[in-house]
Amino acid sequence: MLGEGPVWDAAHHTILWVDIMGCAIHALDMKSHALRSISTPSMIGSFALCTDGNVLAAIQEGFVFINKNTGEINAIGNPEKQLKGNRFNDGKTDPAGRFWAGSMSLSGEKGTGNLYMVDKQLNIKKQVENVSISNGLCWSLDQRFFYYIDTPTMEVVRFDYDNATGEISNKTTVITIPAKEGYPDGMTIDSEGMLWIAHWEGWQVARWDPSTGNKIDSIHLPVSLVTSICFGGENMDDMFITSARVGLTDEQLAEEPLAGSSFIISNTGFKGFTFPAFNLSQQ
Ligand code: CA
Known about the structure:
About 0% of the residues lie in helices and about 50% in strands. It has about 280 residues and is an all-beta fold. Strands 1-2-3-4 form a 4-stranded antiparallel β-sheet, with no helix packed on it. The mean pLDDT is about 95. Calcium ion binds next to strand 9, strand 17 and strand 21.
C-alpha cells in the first residue's frame, strides 16, 4: 500500500523496507531471493538496523526495539503519546549511529509533526517542530550538514550539524522544487554529495545538487507515487526504490499496475553508502 524506508543490509545482502499501511517490514535476500516479512502491531513509519541484529522502529506506540526473529517488542519511549492524530514517518541513522524519525498528521493537518532523535542512551530529543509531513533526511559526506524535507514546503533545507552531539542549527533552504517535478519525499546521498530524491506524484527519482539547487539527472519510473530511495548491492551502485498505491483510483491503477512495487535498478553508475547500524554498544 505504502512502501517506504528502504535500508540495505550489506552483511546479509538483504534489502529491507516497510509498508506503512500494511504494518510490516519486508526483507528480500538478494542472493537467495527469499522474502521474509515481520508484522508490526501498528503502522510503522521507519526503522534502523541495530548492532545486535534487531531493529529499532518508529511505530504508533512510539520508538521500540523489534526482535527480528520473534517479532517481540520492547518499548523505548513515545514522545507523541498525546498526539493521537499523528503517525511516524521516514527515519534514518545519522553518521554517529543515532536514529532520527519524524511524524505527520493522519488527517492532513499542517504543522502537527515533529522530528526526533534517539541517542545511544535511548534519550529521545525533539530536533524540529511544526513539521507537516516529516520525510527525507540525510547527512553530507563531510558530516557538517543535515538535509531535510518537510514535503508540502517543496523544499530541501540544510542545517549545520554537530556529529558529536547531534545538534542542528542555522536552517537554510538549499533546493526549491518546481510543482511539475512532484512532491519531494524520501532522500539519500551519493558518493559525489548529490541528493537523490523520490518524487511523490512525480514518476521519478531525481538527482539534485544542494550547492546550486539544480536538478541534474533523473530516472523515470512506471509509478506516480515514488516514495523513497537507497543505494545497495555488492558495489553500492544499485538503487532500491519504493512506491505507493494508496489513494489511487481504479482508473489510475489500470494506468500504473505496478504502483506500490519496490524497484531495483542495477549498475546505475552512481554509488551510495550503507547507513550505520543503531549503536547499542554503550548500554
Ligand atoms: Ca516518505
